Amino acid sequence: MKRTFLISLSTLAVGLIAHANTITCLPSPVSQAGGTGTGATITCAAIDAGAGFTIGNLQMLLASDYSNGPVGTTSGTNVHIVYTPSANFGTHTEDVSGGFSSQASATDGVNNVGPAPWLAQTILVGSQTLASFTVGDVFSVTSGGPVSSATANVFLMYTPQAISTGAPEPATLGLMGGALLGLGFLARRKK
Q1: 19 touches 49 (CB < 8 A)
Q2: Is 22 helix (H, G, I), strand (E, B) or coil?
Q3: Could you tell me the pTM of the whole model?
Q4: To the nearest 10°, the Cα dihedral for 138, 142, 147, 151?
Q5: How far is residue 98's CA from residue 96's CA, in Å, rounded to a whole number?
Q6: CA-CA distance, 136 to 74, in Å (whole number)?
Q7: How far apart are CA 93 and CA 135, in angstroms?
Q8: C-alpha torsion sign, points 113, 114, 120, 122
Q9: How does pLDDT run across 16-27, given as a tens digit for each residue?
Q10: Which of 22, 89, 126, 155 could disulfide-pair with 85, CB 3.0 to 4.6 Å?
Q11: What stretch of H or E contains 174?
């Protein structure tokens, strides 16, 4: 009977776990050739959470990189990248440093985050849809270099949240009933 209770409890837990959706804004990565003041535009597609769902917390993740500096440029290069979304999110900056390649380190201005995507901001949307928007990015070499190109990536991550109707769904009632039955069998067996 203990097994029945554990199976009922694990079934309930699995039913409550939500999955996150990730959207890659395009082009990805956007590559920018040149030096100071070179920019590009990245487009994030519209999001539709689906009928009966809202977009919960929406996270914007950023990743910057640079490469193709001249041979012999081994240290002291720093590239400053400014991301400016057209809606919803604030402006974010990232400083990427290294030598020939920026794989050495990257910072969001506060934390050393590495070249992998870092969480720039989370906003609460609370609606079923979010219109598409653009993210402008401009990079400049603040020290060292020269740098022949830089890349920028923008990712969105969100979890659809079910709209609460106030009454439990039949599946939820069935899971709770199964758990109560399991508890009842356990209590009866102990007597």
Answers
A1: no
A2: strand
A3: 0.69
A4: -30
A5: 7
A6: 29
A7: 12
A8: negative
A9: 445 678 888 988
A10: 89
A11: helix 170-190
| Residues whose CB falls within 8 Å of the CB of residue 74, separated by 6 or more in sequence, listed in order | 99, 100
Coil/strand/helix, residue 58: strand
In the chain the domains, ranked by start, together with CATH numbers, are 19-162 (2.60.120)
* Cβ atoms of residues 86 and 132 within 8 Å: no
Angle between helices 2-16 and 170-190 (to 10 degrees): 160
What size, in residues, is the chain? 191
71 in Cβ contact with 131 (< 8 Å): no
Tokens of 166: 């106030």
The span from the CA of 171 to the CA of 16, in Å, is 11
Residue of 15, 10, 20 lying closest to 161 (CA atoms): 20
Mean pLDDT of all residues belonging to the chain: 76
Residue 143 to residue 156: CA distance in whole angstroms? 31
Count of Cβ atoms closer than 10 Å to residue 111 Cβ: 10
Give the span between the Cα atoms of 76 and 70, in whole angstroms.
13
Q: What DSSP string describes 89-153?
A: S--EEEEEEESSSGGGEEE-SSSB--SS-EEEEEEE--SSEE--EEEEEEEEEEES---SEEEEE
- Helix extents (H) in 17-115: none
